C-alpha cells in the first residue's frame, strides 16, 4: 500500500482508442501495466514520457508535464524501450561517462569490450542490457520499463531485477510492462490491467 504522496501521477491519458488511463506511483513503488498484446501498455508508457501526442496530463511531485519544457520532463521521466534506438557509432557514445559503467556491466554479464563496439554488433540481449544501463545512468526519478528483460536469459533477468530493486530502494518510481506474471509478482506492488478497446465496447 502506498502511504506517501505519489511521485508520478497520470490523469486521463488518452491516445486514439487507448485510455483514458489514470495512475499514480510513489517513490520506491512499482506499478505493473498488464493486459493483452495491443491493449496499449507501450503507448501508455510513451504518453507518460511525452513521446506521443495525447490528451490528459502527468505530474511529477505535483508539477504538470504541460507546465515545463519537454526536455526537463524527459530528464526526470525515462522511457526504456524493449526495442531501443541507437544513434552514436559506438555503444560508449550513448553514455555521459562510459567509464562509470564497469561494475554495472559486470553485474549484468556484459564484457567491457562492448562499450567500444558498434551497437548493431551486439546481440539483442546485450543491446537490451546496455540500453537499460544507458537509461539509468543519471538515475531518473521515474523509470518506465517496457518489457525490460524480454530478450534475456534467467541469470540476466535476475541481475536486472536486482538493479531495479536497488533503484526503487533509492527512491525511483517505476512503471513496468511485462508479459511475465512471475516478474510482475516479483517487482510490482500494484497492477493495472489494460483492456483492448474492442473488449471495452458496451
Ligand atoms: N504511434 C502509433 N499510432 C497509432 N497507433 C499505434 C501507435 N503505436 C501503437 N499503436 C497501436 O496501438 C495499439 C496498442 O499498442 P501498444 O504498443 O501500446 O500495445 P501493447 O499493449 O504494448 O502490446 P504488446 O504487449 O504487444 O507490446 C496497437 O493496436 C498498435 O497497433
From TrEMBL:
Q: Give the protein's recorded name.
A: ABC transporter family protein
Q: Kindly give the PANTHER family that the UniProt entry links to this protein.
A: ABC TRANSPORT PROTEIN ATP-BINDING COMPONENT-RELATED, ABC TRANSPORTER DOMAIN-CONTAINING PROTEIN
The family database entries (Gene3D superfamilies) matched by this protein are listed as: P-loop containing nucleotide triphosphate hydrolases
Which parts of the chain span the membrane according to its record? none
CDD domains (alphabetical): ABC_ATPase (cd00267)
Q: GO molecular function, one example?
A: ATP binding
Annotated SUPFAM superfamilies: P-loop containing nucleoside triphosphate hydrolases
List, for all copies, the residue spans of the domain called ABC transporter: 1-200
Its keywords, alphabetically, are: ATP-binding, Nucleotide-binding
Q: Is Nucleotide-binding among this UniProt entry's keywords? A: yes
Do you know which SMART domains this protein is assigned to? AAA
Amino acid at each position: 500500500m502506498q502511504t506517501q504522496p505519489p511521485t508520478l501521477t497520470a490523469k486521463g491519458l488518452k491516445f486514439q482508442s487507448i485510455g483514458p488511463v489514470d495512475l499514480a506511483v510513489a517513490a520506491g513503488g512499482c506499478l505493473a501495466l498488464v493486459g493483452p498484446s495491443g491493449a496499449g501498455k507501450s503507448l501508455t508508457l510513451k504518453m507518460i514520457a511525452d513521446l506521443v501526442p495525447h490528451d490528459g496530463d502527468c505530474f511529477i511531485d505535483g508539477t504538470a508535464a504541460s507546465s515545463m519544457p519537454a526536455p526537463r520532463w524527459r530528464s526526470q521521466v525515462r522511457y526504456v524501450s524493449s526495442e531501443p534506438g541507437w544513434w552514436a557509432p559506438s555503444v560508449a557514445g550513448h553514455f555521459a561517462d562510459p567509464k562509470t559503467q564497469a561494475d554495472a556491466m559486470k553485474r549484468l554479464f556484459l564484457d567491457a569490450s562492448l562499450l567500444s563496439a558498434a551497437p548493431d554488433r551486439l546481440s539483442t540481449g546485450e543491446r537490451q542490457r546496455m540500453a537499460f544501463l544507458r537509461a539509468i545512468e543519471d538515475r531518473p526519478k521515474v523509470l518506465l520499463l517496457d518489457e525490460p528483460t524480454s530478450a534475456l536469459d534467467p541469470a540476466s533477468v535476475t541481475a536486472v531485477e536486482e538493479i531495479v530493486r536497488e533503484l526503487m530502494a533509492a527512491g525511483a518510481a517505476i512503471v513496468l510492462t511485462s508479459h511475465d506474471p512471475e516478474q510482475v509478482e516479483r517487482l510490482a506492488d500494484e497492477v493495472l490491467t489494460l483492456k483492448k478497446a474492442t473488449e471495452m465496447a458496451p
